[in-house]
Amino acid sequence: MKKLNLFILFLLPLFIFAQNKDTVDALVSPLVAKQTLTVGGEYADIAGFDNYSIQFAIDAVAKTGGTVKLNPGLYEIVAPVRIKSNVKLVGAGTETILKRDKGIQTNYIVDADYGELKLTVEDAMGFEVGMKVQVTDDDKNSCWAVSTAYITAIENNTIYIDKGLIRDYRSDRNGLVSNASSVIEVIGEKNVEISNLTVNGNREENYFADGCNSAGILILRSKDVTVDNVQVKDFNGEGISWQITENVTIKNSEITGSGNTGLHPGTGSPFSLIENNNIHHNDRDGLFICWRVYESKVLNNSMHNNGRFGICTGHKDTDVLFHGNHVYQNGSDGVHLRGERESNAPHRNTFVDNLIENNGTDGGGYGFSVNSPAKDLVLKENTFGNSEKTQKAAIYIYKGGAKPKLIDNEYDEHPDGKMVLE
């Protein structure tokens, strides 16, 4: 009944508008005129503790630019909170918690084709208008092969969506539609700040969300976005993903318990700044730098106890400075340069004053492994520790990999030595 009442309240202004424009202007104008709106609690401008209330405030201040302040409390997130340009979303610290609602998933029983705006499903129970959905099959279930869209209507077992599907999906190949989606998203916007709050992905009750299309916080086709002092925990996918962006800053934040990678910049995201974050206990990598992340900085972060690599970088990820990071106790390599052809290798990257130690906890790895002919790779004044004897070698150069320029690094003893050339 609570959700129903909220939905009615959400639609009410539209109904009033159709009947009396002067009345709706009178209701909305006081909020639009304010550059700061508060959400959550009896004395807030908007009392609710859910994504509808947050979204109403964001849409109001976005008309002129401004700040939405979330009071302490638990906010139920049924659909992603969509932040608009020139808006700051500010919590009251760790006690401001945005928590994903329970996941829903069903099979579609008719093929879902390219450009189609409806899904004929086995069971539409639990889906709601306004939810974001993810559409996949067994052959197209990752990265840019996944379709996402918002539900515009539901009639019996047919779900209508706002954006045409981007692939042909087959119902006989385990075709699935779920509400797996972000908690917060910034899509096609600029000049945005998110700070001082907790994102709880409620991983145990949600289906896996693809990292290029969803994350605890997803930033897509946007620029000048800052995430500061935010905890992203237990999201069944990637903690923070930013794709096709410029000037994204992630700082002073904790990313933990993700079902995939902690941080994922990629698909052409230059000028990223990743600073003073604690990235740990994520299922895959701490920091996965994907394609074409260049002229960026990774400074004073801690990447530890992640399932695979602490830092992973590769395809055209050039001119990146890694300074002052502590990379330790990750399952495989501390730092891993992926295999690439010379034309696409991660050239001109510099690692200075990093502590890389005790990686390879899942049966052996290396402090630093080079798998591509990366030119002008510099390792300077780093410390390769191995007090727990888990790293097989400090540096491993695979066949075809380029030897880095080594300047004043320090090394503990490793079973296979300081450097191994395959």
What would you say this structure looks like, in words?
It is a single chain. With 422 residues, this protein is mainly beta. It contains three helices and 38 strands. It is globular. Residues 1-27 have low confidence and may be disordered.
Secondary-structure map:
Layout: H1 2-19, H2 21-32, E1 36-39, H3 51-61, E2 66-70, E3 73-77, E4 81-82, E5 87-90, E6 96-100, E7 105-107, E8 118-120, E9 132-136, E10 147-155, E11 158-161, E12 176-178, E13 184-187, E14 190-200, E15 217-220, E16 223-233, E17 240-243, E18 246-251, E19 254-256, E20 263-266, E21 273-275, E22 278-280, E23 287-288, E24 296-299, E25 302-304, E26 311-313, E27 320-323, E28 326-328, E29 335-337, E30 350-352, E31 355-357, E32 365-370, E33 378-380, E34 383-385, E35 391-397, E36 405-407, E37 410-411, E38 419-421
Parallel strand pairs: 1-2, 2-5, 3-6, 4-13, 5-14, 6-14, 13-15, 14-16, 15-17, 16-18, 16-19, 17-20, 18-21, 19-22, 21-24, 22-25, 23-26, 24-27, 25-28, 26-29, 27-30, 28-31, 29-32, 30-33, 31-34, 32-35, 33-36, 34-37, 35-38
Antiparallel strand pairs: 7-12, 8-11, 9-10, 9-12, 10-11
